[in-house]
Amino acid sequence: MQQKTEESRISIAEFNAITASALPLAHALGLRVEKMTAGHVTARLPYDKQHLRPGGTIAGPSMMGLADYAMYAVVLSMVGRARAEAVTVNLNINFLSRPEPRDILAEGRIVKLGKRLAFGEVTLYSEGKPDPVAHVTASYSIPQEK
Amino acid sequence: MQQKTEESRISIAEFNAITASALPLAHALGLRVEKMTAGHVTARLPYDKQHLRPGGTIAGPSMMGLADYAMYAVVLSMVGRARAEAVTVNLNINFLSRPEPRDILAEGRIVKLGKRLAFGEVTLYSEGKPDPVAHVTASYSIPQEK
Amino acid sequence: MQQKTEESRISIAEFNAITASALPLAHALGLRVEKMTAGHVTARLPYDKQHLRPGGTIAGPSMMGLADYAMYAVVLSMVGRARAEAVTVNLNINFLSRPEPRDILAEGRIVKLGKRLAFGEVTLYSEGKPDPVAHVTASYSIPQEK
Amino acid sequence: MQQKTEESRISIAEFNAITASALPLAHALGLRVEKMTAGHVTARLPYDKQHLRPGGTIAGPSMMGLADYAMYAVVLSMVGRARAEAVTVNLNINFLSRPEPRDILAEGRIVKLGKRLAFGEVTLYSEGKPDPVAHVTASYSIPQEK
To answer: Which of D97, D111, D131 is the closest to A135 by Cβ?
Structure first.
């Protein structure tokens, strides 16, 4: 799997604008993309106490929301904003450790871009910690040009 | 798989109280349990425009949040509130159709309760529609008594 | 999810003939379909010591082979043998207990048949035991008519 | 995720001996490990026409068998042969393209080794081709010392 650093087909500013205008829950959670090349994205879930769950760690759904958001950015980095109606078909998450109350970072990458399906993986980290807290694979269905 | 209607080890009122006090994101989304017997739960995501995504359908993370919440209720219905620190280990979701803007209902059930792991499935429906909009399987890790 | 008992678009004899002629590994493992209506299939893995693994229980790959085979039959029961080039896109299996050395039965059913994707689930049992030994979800890609 | 090249806790010869003596189906398929350091394994499925399926490509169950085998080797490379009763708990596979009739190589690596669960990923390739044909994540349950 080559690490391409080609230019993304959507800019970070454009993607964060989609977040603000068309992804209200992601926007309310403060999700944002911080790095983006074609097929590689870093996204952040800023810590807030609304993400806590019993045990004082970050709740699973907050992490799933971040991972799906990062994968959506990965897909749009490959296919462009005209295909923003791309939707998740399958998402599989393994939770590896209970993240402390701090920001979560998502590192997403494309594994295979087909004509109709895109497949990638996202690894989640607690900021400043080397070991992943969760691992995600996801497939997106890509809308066809009309 | 027998359809038991044994009494849940936690009441709906107790579970919804945990939601209000210890699951702030679920509480903010308006998630609630409506039916609960041992190993069988119905939970609801009330429609709100914050759940929309490009295309005008309900966003994946809102559905994942509902499914994980329903499975958490299924687990506590079996093991009781003293084990509220149970956490998701694996969750796999398949999105089957794009749900219109209306409430989503989750039907969750236990498939296997082991000593350390609980496994179940959750089917999501748009209220009033017969076909499922998503299907989820999830494993929870059960904390051991000290 | 309605339990339809419509007629399968392929007969058990036809499906087992495909097994014999075009699925050599499944054939070598002795896999066969025993019941089949549209969207519902029962398939069997006959016990043989080649399926054992350390600990004296049935190996995971034998169970995965059975589950994928049952799901393939479910798909062909819905779309017919002209679409035998349908292929698995995603398969997720949870192993629930270690099966003793005896036949494994697979109960597969369709959950959603779309135009391009079919999604279903398969539950595996040790023959004569009530509790499932594994649970599988799978998506198949359906070839389009030319 | 650091790329460690520490010594495996089991040698390739020892692992292939377990294959020959205790994994009869893997042995019959000709599966073998070719490279192994702690947490990193390369394994091979030699091409044979028994792996074909309708369409003339390699069957899914042969690839799943290879992936599970590679992950088992990854786990034993970390925990040693005394824990050979480690079993798969969850396996999720995404098929990315239809592999031509040739050997399949599996590149497996550990992502997280916990006390009771090991989690890793396996990428499958057609020999000599750069793009993956399938991607797998798997969790293994590690037997506890008595």
So the answer is: D111
| Average pLDDT of the segment spanning A82-98 | 96
Spans of chain D, pLDDT less than 70: 1-5, 146
**Nearest-angstrom CA–CA distance, A121 and B22:** 30
Chain D residues touching residue A137 (CB < 8 angstroms): 92, 94, 135, 137
Q: Which CATH number fits domain A12-141: 3.40.50.720, 3.10.129.10, 3.50.50.60, 3.30.1330.10?
A: 3.10.129.10
* Among the partner residues B22, B55, B68, nearest to A61 by beta-carbon distance: B68
Report the phi/psi class of residue B110: left, alpha or beta, with left for phi > 0 and alpha for psi in -120 to 50.
beta
How many Å apart are CA B52 and CA A21, to the nearest integer?
Answer: 11
Spatial separation of the C-alpha atoms in residues B119 and B89, rounded to whole Å: 10
Going from N- to C-terminal start, the domains of chain A cover: 12-141
pLDDT of residue A72: 97
User: Please, which pLDDT band fits residue C145 given cuts at 50, 70 and 90?
Assistant: confident
Cα–Cα distance for residue pair B116/B72, rounded to 1 Å = 15
First to last CA, chain B: 31
pLDDT tens profile C65-90: 999 999 999 999 999 999 999 999 99
Distances (CA, A) of D59 to B122, C98, D133: 30, 25, 12
Tell me the sheet residues that pair with B139: B90, B119
